[in-house]
Amino acid sequence: MDSATIEQFLHAQVAAWNNGDKQAFFAAYRSVSPAGLQIEYVGRAPATDGWPVLEGMWAQQSAKIEIEEVAAIVNGGEAACHNRNKLRGTAVAIETIELYRFEAGRLSVRYFVRPPGA
């Protein structure tokens, strides 16, 4: 997968999230992971099938959080992102470093989450 496609995915999934567009959010993920999706919350839960994780994330957090893209670096088939997940209507933010690996139609995501105040 080329870097332009990866960058397009990164921005599309954030835009869909912020717009509350679940269909576009999941379409962005499906477009880059036809052979599977794996998600890991580093230090909290092992890597697992990403589709139920995304469903849970959407159901529990989409109305509460707006994502600010702080930085994204794409090298080869991988990307590293620093996102600021702002709790809507507050000054509270949750910082994340997100690592994406695109390989043979599969996407593996690792989330490093720093809770507010940590």
Q: Strand share of the residues?
A: 35-45%
Query: Ranges with pLDDT <50 over ≥5 residues?
Result: none
Q: Supply Rg.
A: 13 Å
Q: What form results from the Cα inertia axes?
A: globular
Q: How many E strands? A: 6
Give the terminus-to-terminus CA distance: 35 Å
Number of domains: 1
Give, in order, the helices and strands.
Answer: HHEEHEEEE
The largest β sheet comes out as: 6 strands, mixed
Count of discrete alpha- or pi-helical segments spanning 4 or more residues: 3
**Named CATH topology:** Nuclear Transport Factor 2, Chain: A
Mean pLDDT score, rounded? 96
CATH class: Alpha Beta
| Alpha-beta content class | alpha+beta
State the helical fraction: 25-40%
CATH architecture label name:
Roll
- Strand arrangement across the biggest beta sheet: 2-1-6-5-4-3
Report on the structure:
- The chain is of the alpha+beta class.
- The chain has a single domain (3-114), classed as Nuclear Transport Factor 2, Chain: A, CATH 3.10.450.50.
- Helices cover 33% and strands 44% of the residues.
- It is built from three helices and six strands.
- The chain has helices at residues 3-18, 22-32, 50-61, and strands at residues 36-41, 45-49, 65-75, 78-87, 93-103, 106-114.
- The chain has a six-stranded mixed β-sheet with strand order 2-1-6-5-4-3, with helices on one face.
- The chain is globular and about 40 Å long.
- The protein starts with a helix and ends with a strand.
- The mean pLDDT is 96.
